[in-house]
Amino acid sequence: MASTLQHRDSRRQFAELFDWAEGLPSLFTVPAAMRGVRIEEFTDEGKYVVRAELPGMDPDKDVKVEVANGMLTISATRQQEEHDGARSEFHYGALTRRVLLPDGADEKAVVAKYTAGILEVTVPISAKAAEARTITIEHTD
Hints:
141 residues, mainly beta, Immunoglobulin-like, 1 helix, 7 strands, elongated
């Protein structure tokens, strides 16, 4: 499992190279909460846990959690309207965050809960993770 975590850490470091761009001014002003899904991930007592900041979201309408092919995908859609007398403004954004599940993750036993603006997804990890094996190469002429 250590090699999976190292691989995930190097992918994360590469992605973080571009985090600086989030602070640059843009042609369109987008509220910070709509730019991306901030997460924390860790393992705890045989479970892989991902927590995502999704304040002000309705988990029944706005948030979707999917697991497939060793990937966890958290998607959210935010629609916000502001009315100020004769003026109104709206913001719309779609957020998606994908994370690689660790070896041994039980994709059929994923549980998600939403409390006080935090989505927590828990994935049990089997103690018996898949081990690397050598594959015999069949030779044909």
